[in-house]
Each structure stands twice: as C-alpha cells, then as structure tokens.
Amino acid sequence: MSGDLSLNINIKEPRWDQGTFMGRAKHFFMVTDPRNVLLSSETLEEARVTVENYRAGIVRPGLTEDELWRAKYIYDSAFHPDTGEKMFVIGRMSAQVPMNMSITGCMLTFYRTTPAVVFWQWVNQSFNAVVNYTNRSGDAPITVNQLGAAYVSATTGAVVTALSLKSLAVRLPPIVSRFVPFAAVAAANCINIPFMRQRELKYGIPVTDENGNRLGESANAAKQAIVQVVVSRIGMAVPAMAIPPVIMNALEKRAFMKRFPILNAPVQVGLVGLCLVFATPLCCALFPQKSSMRVTSLEEDLQEKIKQISPHTTTVYFNKGL
C-alpha cells in the first residue's frame, strides 16, 4: 500500500552521498534546476506541507518515495535551511542560471564604454547582494543599516575594480579587454560576500554535533564557510566569463556576425547560459553544504563550552551558505 511509505527516510539530508563530489553534484543539479523558479506558490506550499508533515511522522495517503524526494528538493530550492522562511525568488539558487546568463551576457557584450561598465557592474552586484543575503548562513537577522553598508561597500568595490582594470586593458590586445568583466566579478566576490555576511564574521554561525544539536556560534566556522562560498562563486564565473569571450572574438570576425551585429548580445547570453547550466551546480558541489570543522579549530571559549556539554564531540557541523 502507498500509505506504507517508511518513516525512516532521512530527508534532513540530501538523497545522494554528500561525502563524494558526484553525490553533491547530483544534489545541486536538483537544487539549482531553473525550472523550480516557475513553480507556483501552491506547489511550493504543498511541498512544504509534505516535508514538514513527514518530519512529524505524518504520511499523506498515496505518497511515494520519489514524490517525497521531489517535494524535499522543491522545498530546499525555495525555503531557507536555517530559518525556514520562503526565500526571495531571484535570490534562490534556482534563479542563478536565468539571472546570471542575462547579466553576465550583457556585461560581456557591453564592456567597451565606461557608463556601460558602471551600469552592468552595479546591476550584477545588486543581484549578488540579494543572493548573498538570501543564502546567508544562520538564523540571526541583519539590520537595514548593516545591509545598506554592505551593499554600498561591495558595489563600490566592484565598480572601482572594473574601471581600474578597464583603464589598464586599453593598451592591451582586444581579447584581453573581454576578460575585464571576469576579473572585476572575481574581485567583487571577494568583497561582496564577506561584506554581506559580516554579521556572521562578528557573531558567528550556529554549529552543531553530528545529530544536529546546537552547540553554540563560531566566527571561525563563518570564516571557513565564507572562503568556501567565495571560491565556489568565482568557480561558477570562470566558464561563463572565460569561454564565451574566446568564442565571440572568433565569431565577430565572421561575415554573418558583421552583417547582423544585433545577434551579438543574444548569442553571448546563450553561450553564457549553456556554461552556467553546468558550472552552477558543479561549483556549488566543490564543498559539502553541511561543512565541518574540528573542535580544536574553534574559539577557545566555545571549545570549553563543548567539552562541558558534549565531551565526546570532536567535529562540529554548520551550513556554509551558498
């Protein structure tokens, strides 16, 4: 009977082994699936109810294991893992491909003039700010002032970096100029993510034992989490911002592209999208979502606290964010 679905399925964890890159890749191909952006509020709510009921030991009649996992991945794509709140739609990882292919494609197409560089870097960092806030680690709120200061700092840093690199690239071959947006994005990620998550660096993020019992908050864990996210984000940008410029540099010398220059932007956006479909989940999979750290690497006061409340714990776990 369908009502006999086992209650022993661990949907607190991903369906595939997160100890392997392939298992994490399968997981993130599901989480970053762009089709999830198109799901209705009713579908998201139905998935939320299915998941929360199952966790409470309530199984909907007729529910199959595949349907349960599908509901779990719909839930994961739209609800924050720590707070449980529904995430802003363009901040979800499932929106990464459609949003980034549009923004990155335009950055790579309109890079020749200063106003265009400023505008598209501002758009990109505004989008990144939304993504970084939406996918932050932990459940502590960030104030409007903190959010505003982080946004202004990150956006200013990105624009200044892009303009500086653009001025340096003037004396270099045209192909080099095409890589200015990538260099600016890589540098901006190193600024944007720490700024948008500065509260975590100051107050720490929740760390738990292997059973999910909260042991405290650690700034050291936050540092590790943010470094991993920065590396992943830069990795996502490499194929999308390094491969299309080389292809476009060759295509623009062709007669048909010279005859129809209007094709430049849509072709560029399409190439970026193709790269991002694979780069986004594969780079998210570089590090486990549930990251870990030895207790001996934590702050001394937290080490003492853990020795008192959980003396056998040698490793703690935390959500690194995305």
List the helices and strands and how they pair.
Layout: H1 21-31, H2 41-55, H3 65-78, H4 96-109, H5 114-134, H6 144-169, H7 174-177, H8 180-196, H9 198-203, E1 205-208, E2 214-218, H10 219-251, H11 255-259, H12 264-284, E3 290-294, H13 300-309, E4 315-319
Antiparallel strand pairs: 1-2, 3-4
Helix pairs in contact: 1-12, 2-3, 4-5, 4-10, 4-12, 5-6, 5-8, 6-8, 8-10, 10-12
Report what the structure shows.
The protein has helices at residues 21-31, 41-55, 65-78, 96-109, 114-134, 144-169, 174-177, 180-196, 198-203, 219-251, 255-259, 264-284, 300-309, and strands spanning 205-208, 214-218, 290-294, 315-319. With 322 residues, the chain is mainly alpha-helical. It folds into 2 domains: 21-86, no CATH class; 93-319, no CATH class. The strands form 2 sheets. The protein has a two-stranded antiparallel sheet. It has a two-stranded antiparallel sheet with strand order 3-4. The two termini are 39 Å apart. The mean pLDDT is 82.
